[in-house]
Amino acid sequence: MAWLMLLVAGILEVVWAYAMKQSDGFTRLWPSLVTLAGMFASFVLLAAAMRSIPLGTAYTIWTGIGAVGAFVVGIAVLGEQVNAMRIVAAVLIVCGLVMMKLASD
């Protein structure tokens, strides 16, 4: 259950990062509210997951899901640039996440 909470917390990190971008510096109400609600829910789930997952593992995986997820949303939704170096960087992050998960068992 802790791993599922951590996964959802990471996905919510992507949600709040995207909403923050859409909030235009917290000048738009609804995206700002989604940002704050997403942050709160993400932190609560991360904290709950940390009850049984070590800090280093939980935090690394949470931020990694957020980083790679924001990268994918940026490309797919916001039309951000795609190049080989950015893709390699994202793949390396994912490899690090897999290694962290394997090392925690």
From TrEMBL:
Q: What is its main location?
A: membrane
Presence of the UniProt keyword Membrane in the record: yes
Q: Which UniProt keywords apply?
A: Cell membrane, Membrane, Transmembrane, Transmembrane helix, Transport
Which Pfam families does this chain map to?
A: Multi_Drug_Res
- Extract the Gene3D superfamilies matched here: 1.10.3730.20
Query: What is the name of the protein in this document?
Result: Guanidinium exporter
Please state which protein family the record places this protein in: Belongs to the drug/metabolite transporter (DMT) superfamily. Small multidrug resistance (SMR) (TC 2.A.7.1) family. Gdx/SugE subfamily.
TM segment ranges:
33-50, 57-78, 84-103
Q: What is the lineage of its organism?
A: Bacteria, Pseudomonadati, Pseudomonadota, Betaproteobacteria, Burkholderiales
- Per the UniProt record, the source organism is Massilia hydrophila
Topology of this chain in the membrane: Multi-pass membrane protein
Where it sits in the cell: the answer is: Cell membrane
